[in-house]
Amino acid sequence: MRDAATRYHLHNDGEDGVPRRRLHLRWPVALLLLGGVGVGVGVRYSAGQAAAAPTQVGACSNGFPPAFIWGLGTSAYQIEGGVNLTGRQPSIWDGFAHTPGKTSNGDTGDVACDHARLFRSDVELMRSIGLRHYRFSLSWSRAMSWNAARRRMVPNEPGLRFYDALLDALLAAGITPYVTLYHWDLPQALHTELGGWHTPYNAPMHAEFARYAALCFGRYGGRVRFWATFNEPWTFAVEGYSLGQKAPGCVPTGPGPCPDGDAVYVVGHNVLLAHAAAAEVYRREYQPSQRGLLSMSLNCEFSLPLTPSREDAAAAERANEFYLGWWLQPLLSGDYPAVMRQYLGARLPTFSRAQSASLQASIDVLGLNHYSTHLVRAARPHELGDQWCSWIADQRLYSSYGAGWPQAASAWERAYPPGIRLLLRWAAGRSGARWHGDVLVTENGWGCNSVGAAAAAHDVQQQEYLANYTEQVRLALVEDGVPVRGYFGWSLLDNFEWNDGYSKRFGLFYVDYETQARTPKQAARWWNRTRHCSEKREAGV
Ligand code: PNW
Question: Ligand 1 atom closest to Cα of 498?
Fold first, then answer.
């Protein structure tokens, strides 16, 4: 530890004279150091290797280890606005949001939180609640532009400079950046001109993504030690290419490039291969010198069996494999879960031996996003199961929520706090789990629809949700031995909630979209009071 820590030094290499931190670490300890230089933590652990030795916990009054990473997240299209600034070109979300009837109230991300202009004051906002870790995404359409003559994306210098400035502002404020390369905003030209994610085995897309990743690793890797390739591939594959509620908004049998119910698996396959291509570049060209960590943020609304019957237990397991195993299993064994192959047969694409090899061990840390839990029962032989999209229809099961689980603003979100602990155990517990390395909860949060800053300032439900869910994360760490190293609440700011527009508010800060004023909600005050390591104060809420 000490050896690694002494290699941490400030390095002034900014064009603008802003000091930039340089970390020179062996990568297995990098995450621990991101979490606060590991003071007082008596364990070493290795990302991507066998799960940790016992973790020293409880050193802080909130019951978490001092090095636990507490962060908040956002994403580019949801907060940046400035869609025409810095030479940014349209993404599929610009087109989708501007199509009548696709988003609540016709809302678009044109202005959003105007973060493209207000980022410096937003960094100050982060400081106001003592935030030390911030997760955000880069917009591919800002960082690169489509060059029609060369039929490929090329670097867009003004856009790249925007992220230089944001990273410098964060580092100057002592905030560690966690950067996601792709949070759903595919450049429109790649969708239209290059066949996007929906064209089977689309190798040019994998190569474009790897080139984009390499550009970011090369330009920002001296300042960014934590990268996620994709955020929630499940959500944009299923909701974008099967349900049709998110960009590009196609449904099997409807207009658009999804001819049938196989499209969603075609998309998933391309995304996994694009991730593998980016990981290969990072492993080969950047990680040896930059010593950062690579991840992917997978979401899972965890399924529990409705009854103890064997059929329902199998249905819940099937649901979890279709939701999370779809992405996680290829990262572990290089292939899809057996139950998906069993249910989908040849509809599920296949990996070559080389592709399997490049997927395996392509992440160092597992990112998990979680909001809600489902109760699942098997469809009986004469029943079809849920049919709300082709992906769910493939599983032959019915899913529901527990009676009395509190309902968030979004119809899909109900609170059942033990669900996050059960998910962490299923994915990364001591025994029977899939992943045996470090985990970060990269999203968890509660959507409210409080009207007005004054009401939002006292949103009790949101604070309760965060308190209850983080307590379950603590139990997963302490009782179940899940090596969960950090938690990122969603979200720093109210923002453009995709097809729900501005009607749902997940922020710890309320945003008045007329004035762009930000007001702390009760959860922001709770965060500041309880999420820092204090040895004396009670972490009561
Ligand atoms: C995530 N579901 O989306 C995204 O990563 C965020 O961009 C988004 O703002 C946040 O969660 C809140 O929605 C999800 O239906 C969308 O279960 C839908 C579901 C889960 C996550």
Answer: 9
Separation CA 288–CA 283 (nearest Å): 7
DSSP H or E stretch at residue 10: strand 9-11
The token duo for 429 is: 């517990």
| Nearest CA among 103, 123, 127 for reference residue 115 | 123
Cβ contact 301:370 at 8 Å: yes
In tens, the pLDDT along 429-448 reads 887 789 999 999 999 999 99
| Residue 55 in this model has a pLDDT that exceeds 70 | no
Q: How far is the CA of 102 from the centre of ligand 1 (A)?
A: 17
At 3-52, the pLDDT tens digits run 222 221 112 222 222 233 333 333 344 555 565 433 222 222 233 333 44
Which residues have C-beta within 8 Å of that of residue 438, sequence separation ≥ 6? 31, 45, 47, 48, 52, 364, 365, 366, 483, 484, 485
Could you tell me if 541 and 481 are in contact, meaning their C-beta atoms sit under 8 angstroms apart? Answer: no
Ramachandran angles phi, psi of 70, nearest 5°: -110, 115
Neighbours of 281 (CB within 10 A): 17
Catalytic residues: 232, 443
Residue-averaged pLDDT of the chain: 90
